[in-house]
Design a protein that fits this description.
Layout: E1 8-11, E2 16-20, E3 26-29, E4 34-41, E5 44-49, E6 52-57, H1 83-91, E7 109-116, E8 123-129, H2 139-151, E9 156-163, H3 176-181
């Protein structure tokens, strides 16, 4: 995947569903439309199409002539005590589509806990996360990405992602690396 901050012009090669940013509303891009990749981090692409930012899921990367992002290879017999670091690594592959910093370094993850699951040898994961702004329309999209990625991990039987706004997020919650990346 592209990790640079320059824009790349692409042609939409097939009709594909995207989400507008920041509202999160689904929209269909039609084959033949022109777009610019403004961000390609984690497992999605941020596109600029006719003045509107849009989020394209990585599984649809072929629609703009790109390959889907590679996933982390994880053994099915993962020891249970290695699950938490793996979840943190997985969360670092989730990005706000407007900000080139992952949600962990942005300070959006407030809590990661485990509870017993109904499935033997699996755990229920509970995550409290926030957004950079309470009215962000991409919140549900980001939470769904977190659910999908964590639920795909071995030893995870179920997941609950709670969007919380107390305490309110502010820039001081970002890691030093994130602040440097954003020039703060």
């Amino acid at each position: 995947m592209m990790h640079r901050r320059h824009r790349e012009d692409v042609l939409v090669r097939r009709n594909v569903m995207v989400e507008t940013i920041p509202s999160g509303h689904p929209v269909e891009l039609e084959q033949g439309m022109l777009a610019q990749i403004t961000q390609a981090l984690g497992s999605s692409f941020t596109l600029l199409v006719e003045g509107q930012l849009m989020r394209l899921k990585g599984v649809d990367a072929d629609a703009i002539g790109k390959r889907p992002p590679e996933t982390i290879a994880v053994p099915e017999d993962l020891p249970i005590d290695e699950l938490e670091p793996l979840i943190w690594d997985t969360l670092r592959t989730c990005y706000d589509p407007e900000i080139p910093v992952n949600i962990v370094d942005l300070g959006l993850i407030y809590r990661l806990d485990f509870e017993p699951s109904d499935e033997p040898d699996k755990l229920r994961v509970v995550i409290d996360m926030t957004l950079t702004a309470p009215g962000c329309g991409m919140g549900e999209s980001i939470a769904n990405e977190v659910c999908d990625k964590v639920l795909a991990l071995p030893r995870v039987g179920d997941i609950t992602v709670n969007l919380v706004f107390d305490p309110p997020w502010d820039r001081s919650m970002m890691s030093e690396e994130a602040q440097l990346a954003l020039g703060l």
